[in-house]
Amino acid sequence: FLVGDTRRIIGEAAERSCFICCKMGATITCCQTGCDRAFHLPCAPDGQCVTQYFGAYRSFCWEHRPQQALRPRPSQDNTCSICLDSVEDNISYKTMGCPACQDARFHRHCIQKLALHAGIDFRCPRCLNQEPFMTEMLTMGIRLSKRPPSWQSDREVGPSDQRHGRCDATTCLCPGGREHTEAHGPWQLRLCSSCAAEGIHQLCSSLGNSTCSWECSTC
């Protein structure tokens, strides 16, 4: 972005209210043509909004978010394949399923945590399918990590514990790009206080200067 473009985007965001918390400064808009809903990134889970962390980084409100089209389950085991707690009978924002085996069900927050820990080895926890499972999860707003699995002990594969250094806001306002960071000021990168696997510039997050911590939408 040029400086003029950045100022224009900041100005437009300042005039938009979040349809979830009703506060001003909503920087994310639903990409569905004709939809004027806007929201803050931290508010997205409460509003059941989806952001796709690939390609154009598109975001959707609760009404226009992508939906999974799965067949009826071969079994009636209504438990999460990851945490083994109960899940909803039907597919929803909070309850997802595997498009390959059509049987695995899991909570959104469980599959997101698995994706961040599994890294490049991310696959269905029941049938172990990677494709089309991985593509489906990306489409449904699950963020994937390109790092080796967190449980892998071989340090020769690469720095899996390297600090995240990229702004993951749907619309990054930094003139220097998503990977530009500064020690202080609007381009200081705040990492998620829970998983540290996502980050956001201070200005891109709509956080006040006094805010010391930030949580990503998946946490």
UniProtKB/TrEMBL annotation:
Keywords: Ligase, Metal-binding, Zinc, Zinc-finger. It comes from the Eukaryota. SUPFAM superfamilies: FYVE/PHD zinc finger. Residues 80-127 form the RING-type domain. Pfam families: PHD_G2E3, zf-HC5HC2H. GO terms for cellular component: nucleus. Residues 1-65 form the PHD-type domain. GO terms for molecular function: ligase activity; zinc ion binding. InterPro entries: EPHD, PHD-type_Zinc_Finger, PHD_PHF7/G2E3-like, Znf_FYVE_PHD, Znf_PHD, Znf_RING, Znf_RING/FYVE/PHD. PANTHER family: PHD FINGER PROTEIN (PTHR12420), PHD FINGER PROTEIN 7 (PTHR12420:SF47). This is G2E3 ligase. It comes from Pheucticus melanocephalus. The lineage of its organism: Eukaryota, Metazoa, Chordata, Craniata, Vertebrata.
